[in-house]
Design brief:
Low-confidence stretches: none
Structural class: alpha/beta
Distance between the termini: 44 Å
Strand order of the largest sheet: 2-1-3-4-5-6
CATH superfamily of the largest domain: Carbonic anhydrase
Strand content: 15-25%
Bound molecules: zinc ion
CATH class of the largest domain: Alpha Beta
Helix content: 40-55%
Shape: globular
Number of strands: 6
CATH topology of the largest domain: Beta-carbonic Anhydrase, Chain A
Mean pLDDT: 92
Number of domains: 2
Number of helices: 9
Order of helices and strands: HEHEHEHHHHHEEEH
Length: 221
């Protein structure tokens, strides 16, 4: 906590003067470019690897970067993730949604090996949203066999969460109309690199300058 409080003092003295006008403008409203769905893991740092500024990203973070499937018309839609997804896409009208998984994910390890602690009913209940993901993964994935199994599941999970997002009818309509793009990203902690899923290669590849140029060409103006 000492480090955090010293950080606030440092922010107040050095950073706040640089951002004051921007925050004054943002106080009038937000217009983020994208929704980022990432794991709660402290090592995943989008503010560093995506050079985001305040107001750029609407963010959902949870254990395992999961978005439970659409509850259906008869179901009771009551989870925070669905609410954030609908708010970002339908009210804020973000143009892009990124699901970002990462290497050495504790949630993915728990899915493969069981929860790290006993008497954690909420953790178990939450991870059960990814139960079908694990079963599909066990049935076979075509992702990079050279990386550790837990990382392969993490990459597979990102792609599955994209499918979960598409299970929301209003989101799927926007995607089909070309008004919303969905992206699968993955942060390799040890290499400190950001990868994205390249459908043509069927694998995650590093977003370096040439790959970024290819991506941006595909997106168009
Ligand atoms: Zn994680």
């Amino acid at each position: 906590m000492r480090k955090l409080i010293r950080g606030v003092v440092g922010y107040h003295e050095r950073v706040r003067p640089l951002y004051r006008r921007r925050f004054a403008r943002l106080a009038l409203g937000q217009k983020p470019d994208a929704l980022l769905v990432a794991c709660s893991d402290s090592r995943v740092a989008p503010n560093i690897f995506a050079s985001e500024e305040p107001g750029d990203l609407f963010v959902v973070r949870n254990v395992g970067n999961l978005i439970p499937r659409y509850a259906g018309r008869g179901g009771k839609p009551c989870h925070a993730e669905g609410a954030a997804l609908e708010f970002a896409a339908l009210a804020l009208r973000v143009k892009d949604i990124i699901v970002c998984g990462h290497s050495s994910c504790g949630a993915m390890r728990a899915l493969l090996e069981g929860p790290p602690v006993k008497s954690a009913a909420h953790l178990e209940g939450w991870l059960s949203h990814a139960g079908p993901v694990v079963r599909r993964f066990e049935a076979g994935s075509r992702l990079d066999a050279a990386i550790p199994r837990v990382d392969r599941l993490s990459q597979f999970n990102v792609l599955q969460q994209i499918e979960h997002i598409r299970s929301y009818p209003a989101i799927e309509r926007l995607v089909r109309a070309g008004r919303l793009r969905l992206h699968a990203w993955w942060f390799d902690i040890a290499a400190a690199e950001v990868l994205h899923f390249e459908p043509r290669q069927g694998r995650f590849v590093v977003i370096d300058a040439p790959e970024a140029a290819r991506l941006l060409r595909r997106f168009g103006p």
